[in-house]
Amino acid sequence: QAVVDFERLGEHAAVFQGHDVGFCCLGTTRAKAGADGFVRVDRDYVAQAAELARTGGCKHFVLQSSQGANQHSRFLYLRVKGEVENLVQAVGFDHCTILRPAVLLCKRQESRPTEWLAQQFLGVVARVFPTAYSVPVETVARAMVASVLQPGEGKVEVLENGAIHKLGKA
Predict the structure, then answer these.
(1) Catalytic member of 32, 59, 81, 155
(2) How far, in Å, CA of 108 to CA of 81, rounded?
(3) Which CATH number do you get for residue 106?
(4) Which of 16, 33, 100, 168 has the smallest number of Cβ neighbours within 10 A?
């Protein structure tokens, strides 16, 4: 494990060398970092880390994005997620897997009342429609690993929420 300063990520290029696979779940919230900080973390840091990983020899990059990611979205969150997906794909990995989970079900240390309320509601909905609107973070993690052990066809593979559930239980 290595600790890096993302504001000076280029100075930590050695950390990204010699790895066949890269996993990226980096992100923040607009509430926590402001709009500019959100863009810097969720797009710029991720894109720079992907470039450093590729330069360091990474062949397969696995990116956790978001359901609804679209570079043309009017919503900042979805637009930034779509932009970073395109930037990561452009880096030129042999294989790139993008996971687009719906609402992540997890226990957080920080307080996010609206997200907590949504998780309570979606937890109930998930009992009836288990793959429709949410996914446990453990399932996403298993799907990320499985996507490397069982890579899909083609250079880029995009896994939507239902596919994440399926692969995460394999």
Answers:
(1) 81
(2) 21
(3) 3.40.50.720
(4) 33
